[in-house]
Design brief:
There is one protein chain. The chain is globular. The chain has 2 domains: 300 residues, Metalloenzyme, LuxS/M16 peptidase-like (Cytochrome Bc1 Complex, Chain A, domain 1, 2-Layer Sandwich), CATH 3.30.830.10; 215 residues, Metalloenzyme, LuxS/M16 peptidase-like (Cytochrome Bc1 Complex, Chain A, domain 1, 2-Layer Sandwich), CATH 3.30.830.10. Helix 10 packs across helix 12 and helix 12 packs antiparallel against helix 14. It is α+β, with helices and mostly antiparallel strands. Bound molecules: zinc ion. The site of zinc ion (ZN) has 7 residues, from helix 3 and helix 6.
């Protein structure tokens, strides 16, 4: 995520899992190490003349999909500098902001579709195909890493109609689309393929939908293509390893039992040796109509777009009987220890106080979802203001708070301090005093009011920038929202609700909300610092700092 991605993207959580990015390579601006609040470059290679770059991005937005925030990874900007979009479509700001209603549903065979008509400043549309079923659906051992391998093979495997062409998809698809930092990603629960077209011509969209359909059903997995990609996937995973070790250790402490803790998604040990039959069997099992979603976002007529999707995907008949999805592992409260630490020499320096809780099983009405979103954002603003004012002049992102809501299978409230040098003790003590104070006295009316003003200003800016939001990013957010049975809420709608609703809530109600949130999960304190390697008993040392801070803040001591 770029710095524009709002404070919601600045948390120290990293998705460890595979994000493959086909990219028109530019000089890397990624920092070399795994630093909270920044992104990490995890390796690169090339396939068929297309350069690949792999990155791990910051944690995504709140799953609600307030999409304007995710303006990074622009398909247009990331390419060769051709940015004709702003001149290609001249519309006034209001037209660009407004979205038409989302048209979505399922075809009779189970394929989901979603179309979001909108005016942006791009010349083309965003097109996405999502396959439900990532690492969680792999048999482990036996299929470890193969959903990721299939994702790679999509770009190089011949298809039934082009059995001798290793670059069928790219040869036909590339001229119709803009270069992009990414065209495929695989996570613990899904694989996504996505492109931005150069025009809104229906013929182009239809061609790309035809290619997507071939991806869904017609890959041949020719053995030479498979063997090429085995090596690439393993290289990629090796490049990710240092960051992933850090992440795995972190998630084991903060959210034990959650999907990313349980799945061990980085383990791709079956990629080098899995037979083509095994790979194909997994493909047949997962790439099924009821697991597939096609999303179109941009200046399109929804009726026409739906007709195109129906034409390409409506005739798809599954070969085998439906599979039962693997149940999503649940956060294990009983396994959350009060304290954890990491003393990795190449690790990060950060103090974290988190509260992890299960995600809600039902999200309620659109208004309920908007209100929940607004409360989260308001709290983030208020806490960030509090943390920032305690450390005036510190670099942006050094201290902060973040709420991760469902992306990794749990809800997580997290405060952090990315200290420098051997200063973990004062950093942790400050964080502890802050959480104690918030849990007892809460925020003042002035603090809440300031947070509200800041939030409304932020939403105004996001709403004003909506014309620049990328169709393909909106398509991702729409797909996540639909998969999670949530609404995709337009920033303008959220802004409107914020203006009406937030002033009606007084400070004591907001403080009670915060306390409820904090108490509904289990608090966990974590310190990551290479310096802890020199400490005889790091847990005890951390506990001493916490107890002293709690005492000074008149806060109850840490549970034993
Ligand atoms: Zn990859």
């Amino acid at each position: 995520m770029s710095g524009r991605g709002s404070l919601l993207t600045k948390g120290p959580v990293r998705k460890p899992h595979v994000l493959c990015h086909l990219v028109a390579l530019k000089s890397s601006d990624d920092p070399p190490s795994f630093v909270p609040g920044q992104r990490r470059n995890a390796g690169r290679t090339s396939v068929g003349g297309w350069k690949l770059r792999f990155r791990v991005f910051a944690s995504r937005l709140l799953g609600l999909g307030v999409v304007a925030l995710s303006s990074s990874g622009s398909a247009i900007q990331a390419g060769d500098g051709r940015r004709s979009a702003s001149t290609a479509v001249k519309l006034n700001a209001a037209q660009k902001i407004d979205w038409g209603p989302v048209v979505n549903g399922r075809l009779p065979n189970g394929v989901r579709y979603a179309i979001l008509p909108r005016q942006g400043d791009e010349p083309g549309i965003g097109l996405l195909m999502r396959n439900e079923g990532g690492f969680i659906e792999e048999q482990r051992p036996g299929e470890r890493g193969l959903t990721h391998l299939i994702e790679h093979l999509v770009f190089v495997s011949p298809t039934i109609n082009a059995p001798n062409d290793m670059h069928h998809l790219t040869k036909i698809g590339l001229p119709l689309t803009f270069p992009a930092p990414s065209a495929g990603t695989t996570s613990w629960r899904e694989t996504n393929y996505f492109v931005s077209t150069r025009t809104t011509r229906m013929a182009d969209i239809d061609t790309l939908l035809r290619l997507f359909r071939e991806v869904a059903t017609d890959l041949t997995f020719r053995s030479d293509a498979v063997d090429d990609q085995r090596a690439d996937v393993m290289r990629e995973m090796a490049g990710r390893k240092p960051g992933n070790v850090i992440y795995a250790d972190y998630i084991a402490g903060v959210a034990p039992g959650s999907p990313t803790d349980v799945i061990d998604g980085q383990n791709s040990d079956d990629v080098p040796t899995a037979s083509v039959e095994t790979i194909r069997a997994l493909y047949r099992r997962l790439y099924r109509p009821e697991n597939m979603m096609v999303v179109i976002v941009g200046n399109v007529d929804p009726t026409t777009a739906k007709a195109l999707i129906t034409q390409r995907f409506g005739s798809w008949k599954p070969i085998a009987s439906p599979v039962v999805h693997v149940p999503v592992p649940r956060l294990r409260h009983d396994r959350i220890a009060p304290i954890s630490f990491s003393a990795l020499q190449q690790g990060r320096r950060t103090a974290l106080i988190t509260v992890a809780m299960p995600t809600l099983s039902s999200h309620g009405s659109k208004r309920t979802q908007m209100d929940a979103e607004l409360m989260d954002r308001l709290a983030i603003r208020a806490v960030n203001n509090r943390l920032g004012s305690a450390q005036p002049g510190s670099p942006s992102g050094k201290v902060g708070m973040f709420i991760e809501n469902g992306e990794q299978g749990h809800r997580l409230i997290m405060l952090w301090d990315n200290f420098t040098g051997d200063t973990w003790q004062p950093a942790l003590a400050d964080l502890k005093r802050t959480t104690c104070g918030l849990g007892t006295a809460g925020f003042s009316t002035d603090e809440w009011d300031r947070a509200r003003r800041d939030l409304i200003q932020e939403l105004e800016q996001i709403t004003g920038d909506m014309g620049h939001a990328k169709n393909v990013e909106l398509a991702k957010d729409l797909s996540h929202a639909i998969a999670a049975d949530r609404e995709l809420i337009a920033p303008s709608a959220l802004l409107q609700r914020a203006r009406i609703w937030l002033p009606t809530i007084d400070a004591s109600t907001r403080n009670a909300w915060w306390r409820r949130q904090w108490q509904s999960g289990h608090e966990h304190v974590r310190v990551e610092a290479p310096e802890l390697a020199r400490v005889v008993d790091p847990r005890q040392a951390i506990r001493i700092v916490l107890d002293a801070a709690s005492l000074r803040a008149s806060c109850r001591p840490l549970r034993q």
